[in-house]
Amino acid sequence: AQSVAQPEDQVNVAEGNPLTVKCTYSVSGNPYLFWYVQYPNRGLQFLLKYITGDNLVKGSYGFEAEFNKSQTSFHLKKPSALVSDSALYFCAVRFSGGYQKVTFGTGTKLQVIP
Amino acid sequence: DTGVSQNPRHKITKRGQNVTFRCDPISEHNRLYWYRQTLGQGPEFLTYFQNEAQLEKSRLLSDRFSAERPKGSFSTLEIQRTEQGDSAMYLCASTIDRVRADTQYFGPGTRLTVL
Asked: Taking a C-beta distance cutoff of 8 angstroms, is the pair B20, B77 a contact?
């Protein structure tokens, strides 16, 4: 079984400050990890993914995420938040062994305050 | 726009009616996925196609649900005898299997409301 936990329903951050959205996962074997963003009335947009190699992954719109195997975490980060980053963020995991099922977390609403 | 498209965007139906949704993936994407998303939750995997073959199905996909991808291009998801609990956003995603951990590209979704 595989699962994802996003412990914070909402994260508030002031514009210009660094932001972190937390994600922990559970999967048998090596994981593929993803972050997606969802704006109101729009589909999910891919931000970044971890497959293997460098633990720090850089993605779209200045976002990055750090894979930590010992803590089974894949936190999303950005050095300086923009008001336009306000959205719903989903972490997702997939077992690397062949099954295609992707399991998503429940989402974290990011609110960037001007 | 050559992204994933879904139709209709919204569907309101009465309990007991059948509904069908369509998904057109990105051209040349051979993998297609259906998810269901309810308020306050992340997308839940329903089923997956590789070309026209349905290879994985979630236990969420009861016998009232059926999905097809007859020619390996567009897909349809049918729900028979709809129930109020079927009210949700139904998302479609597609990808191509050229690389590992292929990124799934999502459509805008079909919002189903069962009265």
From this structure: yes
| Residue B39: exposure state from Cβ atoms within 10 A (0-12, 13-18, ≥19) | exposed
Chain A hits for B103, Cβ within 8 Å? 34, 46, 49
Q: Which residues of B touch A107 (CB under 8 A)?
A: 40-42
Looking at residue A80, its pLDDT comes to 97
> Binning pLDDT at 50, 70 and 90, where does residue A95 land?
confident
DSSP single-letter state for residue A59: -
List residues of chain B with CB under 8 Å from any CB of chain A. 4, 31, 33, 35, 40-45, 48, 55-56, 58, 91, 93, 100-101, 103-109
> How far does B30 lie from chain A, in Å, by closest CA?
13
Do A36 and B106 make contact, defined as CB atoms within 8 angstroms? yes
pLDDT, tens only, B66-99: 999 998 899 999 999 999 999 999 999 998 876 6
DSSP per-residue letters across A58-113: E-GGG-EEEEETTTTEEEEEESS--GGG-EEEEEEEEETTS----EE---EEEEEE
Residues in chain B: 115
In total, chain A counts a number of residues equal to: 114
Distance of alpha carbon B92 from alpha carbon B76, whole angstroms: 10
